[in-house]
Amino acid sequence: MNQFLPHLSLLLLAAVFTAVKPSDLTASESTAAVSRFQEYLRIDTAQPSPDYAKAAAFITSQAESIGLESQTLELVAGKPLVLLKWPGKKSSLPSLLLNSHTDVVPFETDKWAHHPFSAAIDSSGRIYARGSQDMKCVGMQYLEAIRLLKKAGFSPDRDIYITFVPDEEIGGHAGVEVFVKSEIFKKLNIGLVLDEGLASPGAEYRLFYGERSPWWTVIRSKGAPGHGAKLYDGSAMENLLKSIEAIKRFRTAQFDLVKAGVKAEGDVVSINFVYLKAGTPTPTGFVMNLQPSEAEVGLDIRVPPSADPEALERRLAEEWAPSSRNLTYEFKQKVPVVDIYGKPAVTVADNSNPWWSLLGEAVKKAGGKLGKPEIFPASTDARYFRELGIPAFGFSPMANTPILLHDHNEVYFLFFPFLLGRAYVLHKTISCLPTKQKLYLKTPERNQLP
Ligand SMILES: [Zn+2]
Fold first, then answer.
1. How far is 433 from 86, CA to CA, in rounded Å?
2. Under the cellular component aspect of Gene Ontology, which terms does the record hold (predicted)?
């Protein structure tokens, strides 16, 4: 890292005068922020055995240096959730929650140019680390933005909470899922959540207002066993393959809509075959002259909020797993497509939602532009908030950056728009949102402001 420091400082300085207003931070402050970011990235929080204690200690020490209240909740043993608070002047107003997860996905070290926990910075200003995009950069931007705002003497009207949560990468069951059910959460009176989005290879920032619901499904087939040389109807494999063909036709039709540009990826039902299981095993392989009596297939189905879930399940029961062909199905996971009020679990992303207008305005004021709002193609913790009817936007402010989350050589571009350039976007976003005192969110009528 040291050999790049002088070079990096120049890049940072250049970025200060292009992406960020010079008055907001100095070059030495930028360098210090990058060092803090690196320190966070170097903590091994990879699943399946993340060092949560170290991450919690780091966040707590950061909160202390910024002057934020902090508490570490252990709603599930060994899974600390750090809750920070920046008290507002009008605590009765619904608060803002800035959420990020501390865990990251595993990696294959030998496929990386630098060790995934080195946080090494190359000569082009790319910082290599697992979690650099997903989503330690966002967590650090919250803190750096608040640090800047505090330095500028800003104090919010609303209470602002910042959460660093465990286990998002394995479903959030011991993280946000239990947190939103806790008494502590209910008392926070959250009006809006900002959570993670995706990097944008183009100049526009991406913003997500909903996500597809995973329906992890297993279809099992039964049939008469028989000699491998005999042709007969109704074997388990034949029954299952008929279903697989029907599912493939549906998958192709959905995919064609995306390829033709008619629908975005997040707006179609995606289906992928994740495993096939059949055959009678032997010590060296499988019996080759026997047709098995059972077979099964695993499907990762993702259902967009715009889909008709009942029609889809009917198709599953009648066409893909009909009992008439000795097929059954089981959901390993089935996340509801609607919220607790029975409405599609999405946050309104047009000017009828004042939070949306404010966010767009704030990004514009910071010199950025939001792209068309999107449905997140996979799952994030934001679904637990939306399920309760709480507005939540997925927003990882990274423009001009390739999408490398969960990939080898996950990198974050420090030089343009670098960490604080993006923190600046967030800074403006935060400073804009809570100062609009007239906004009062009546729960549970989400997005309805007087
Ligand atoms: Zn993530």
1. 14
2. cytoplasm
Residue pointed to by tokens 């002259």: 289
406 belongs to an annotated ligand binding site: yes
CA of 403 to the centre of ligand 1 (A): 12
Which pTM value belongs to this model?
0.84
CA distances from 34 to 197, 369, 386, 406 (A): 21, 24, 33, 22
In the residue annotation, 168 being an active-site residue is answered as yes
Tell me: is residue 134 an annotated ligand-binding position: yes
Active site residue 374: no
Q: Ligand 1 centroid to 410 CA: how many Å? A: 13
The per-residue pLDDT for range 305-338, each reduced to its tens digit, is 999 999 999 999 999 999 999 999 999 999 999 9
74 is in an annotated binding site: no
What is the CA(119)–ligand 1 centre distance, in A? 18
Domain count, the chain: 2
- For residue 98, how far is its CA from the centre of ligand 1 (angstroms)? 14
Check 144, 168, 265, 410 and give the catalytic one.
Answer: 168
For residue 235, the domain's CATH number is 3.30.70.360
**Same domain as 9, residue 150:** yes
357: in domain: yes
Are residues 289 and 151 part of one domain?
Answer: no
Asked whether residue 428 falls in the same domain as residue 307, the answer is no
Q: Which of 24, 103, 144, 410 is catalytic?
A: 103
* Contact of 410 with 419, CB cutoff 8 Å: no
First-residue to last-residue Cα distance in the chain? 52
Q: Which domain holds residue 238?
A: 214-334
Q: Would residue 302 count as lying in a domain?
A: yes
Alpha carbon of 134 to ligand 1 centroid (Å): 4
pLDDT one-digit tens code per residue, 120-136: 988 878 899 999 999 99
Listed residue (302, 335, 14, 414) closest to 171, CA to CA: 335
Whether residue 255 lies inside any domain: the answer is: yes
Q: How far is CA 327 from CA 124, 133, 278, 310, in A?
A: 55, 42, 14, 19
Express each pLDDT in 374-400 by its tens digit: 999 889 999 999 999 999 999 998 888
